[in-house]
Amino acid sequence: MLAKSFARIFYRNAINVGLPVLICDTDKIKLGDELEVDLEKGTVVNKTQGETINFAPLPDVMIKILNDGGLLAHIEKHGDFKID
User: Fold this and answer.
1) Mean predicted confidence (pLDDT) in 25-48
2) Which of these, 5, 14, 24, 77, could form a disulfide with 19 (CB 3.0-4.6 Å)?
3) What is the DSSP letter of 37?
4) How far, CA to CA in Å, does 24 sit from each of 5, 45, 59, 68, 74?
5) CATH code linked to domain 2-78
6) CA atoms of 84 and 37, how far apart (whole Å)
7) For the segment 51-61, what is each residue's pLDDT rounded down to a tens digit?
8) pTM score, two decimals?
9) Of 64, 76, 66, nearest in space to 15 by CA
């Protein structure tokens, strides 16, 4: 999910359930545009329009939680809240 802003509680809850949310400038994104998102690099490539939008990359811990399928799955996989 991409937006110019999110309420802090929504943002963190989304990450915790495994939903990637990104804060970036969405003005040039049109309905139907094909996007390629790189969470680690902090880029959204609009393949339809040939433009790149930069955003603050997600912290490693958030990427690990997302890759594990959310906070609960992360804890089940690692036994606690390990981020190594």
Assistant:
1) 95
2) 14
3) E
4) 8, 12, 15, 24, 26
5) 3.20.19.10
6) 24
7) 999 999 888 88
8) 0.78
9) 66
Helix, strand and coil in the chain, % to nearest 5 = 30, 20, 50
Residue 65: the pLDDT is 92
Cα 10 from Cα 16, distance rounded (Å):
10
Domain ranges of the chain: 2-78
Backbone angles phi, psi at 33, to 5 degrees: -65, 140
Q: At what angle do helices 71-78 and 8-16 cross, to 10 degrees?
A: 40
Average pLDDT, the chain: 92
What token pair was written down for 84? Answer: 């190594």
